[in-house]
Write a structure and sequence with these properties.
304 residues, alpha+beta, 5-stranded antiparallel β-sheet, two-stranded antiparallel ribbon, 7 strands, globular
Length: 304
């Protein structure tokens, strides 16, 4: 007797929204096809079309994506979602780590490559993590299990930063100068901020979404743009540029709005405020991975 088969594929992506196609086939039954979106704050609705036997009319309906992608039991479903998300995040970190590790160029170019890799890690890891949020349930159970993914990374940063564990690729992709002790600062704050935003605010709150998006997309892109086009410095902070601050506000805002156009004003205020705080001289003393999410959470509480 032949076994049931489930094929899943990504068939398109635009504006932060990826579309997945699922094809489930059970021996002796008509195939069940489905498509659903998965984005930063995408719904978990799944539009299903099941061909009726003998050429009858197809039936349509709505159900949860987890019913087809993950086990029906809520706890088992969230555990599987956490395993999938954690595996994907680890693979992404390993990918950027290997790129940073294999930089066989002259010293100046290696430093440039390390900077780019570090910022690409900064931008991509948090945003990709959010793309998996629709796989989890919307309640506190889903929030806690999802938060375990960046939470485990907190432990990892502590072990690497204290020298208890060794991983040259990860250290090179996350540190400015290749010093493992740097992981106890920015990377640790980064993982902690995403964990808190996920566990406390979760996907049902625009506050957590704004905090993660401004931290990842906004702050990450600000450094890359500022290094490349930042000739015009801010008068109150010569280490920051107009282009970098503008890039941060725009990137954080665009990443935040997703499908929530009804909250455009609130997201705009949060992104502008986060970019302003990031540009202040205090950023030379306190890490941006600490000040940006705190500012986003505070402003989000007031305006979202």
């Amino acid at each position: 007797m032949s076994a049931a088969t489930l094929n899943v594929s990504v068939f398109g992506a635009s504006a932060g929204l990826a579309y997945f196609a699922a094809d489930f086939r059970l021996p002796g039954c008509p195939p069940l096809k489905a498509t659903f979106p998965a984005g930063v704050i995408a719904t978990t609705d799944l539009r299903v079309r099941s061909p009726a036997p003998n050429g009858g009319r197809a039936r349509r309906g709505l159900t949860s994506s987890s019913a087809f992608m993950l086990p029906q039991n809520p706890v088992a479903s969230d555990i599987c979602a956490a395993a999938i998300t954690g595996g994907s995040a680890l693979s992404l970190l390993r990918f950027w780590g290997e790129i940073a590790k294999r930089g066989f160029f002259d010293q100046h170019l290696i430093m440039s490559l390390m900077t780019v890799c570090r910022k690409l890690v900064h931008i991509s890891v948090g945003l990709v993590f959010m793309l998996f949020w629709p796989l989890f349930s919307s309640g506190s159970q889903g929030a806690v299990l999802a938060a375990l993914v960046p939470g485990i990374n907190i432990i990892r940063m502590l072990l690497l930063g204290l020298g208890i564990m060794k991983d040259e690729a990860i250290v090179k992709s996350m540190s400015r100068h290749g010093d493992y002790r740097e992981l106890l600062k920015g990377p640790l704050y980064y993982a902690s901020a995403i964990t808190i935003a996920c566990a406390i605010y979760w996907r049902t709150s625009p506050i957590g979404i704004a905090a993660v998006c401004n931290l990842c997309a906004g702050d990450g892109l600000a450094d890359l743009v500022g290094r490349r086009f930042g000739s015009q410095k801010l008068p109150y902070n010569r280490s920051k540029s107009f282009s970098g601050s503008i890039a941060m506000a725009v990137a954080g805002f665009l990443a935040s709005i997703g499908e929530s156009w009804g909250m455009v004003f609130g997201f705009l205020v949060v992104s502008l405020g986060s970019a302003l705080v990031e540009s202040l001289p205090i950023s030379n003393e306190l890490d941006d991975n600490l000040t940006v999410p705190i500012t986003s959470l505070l402003l989000g509480t007031l305006f979202l």
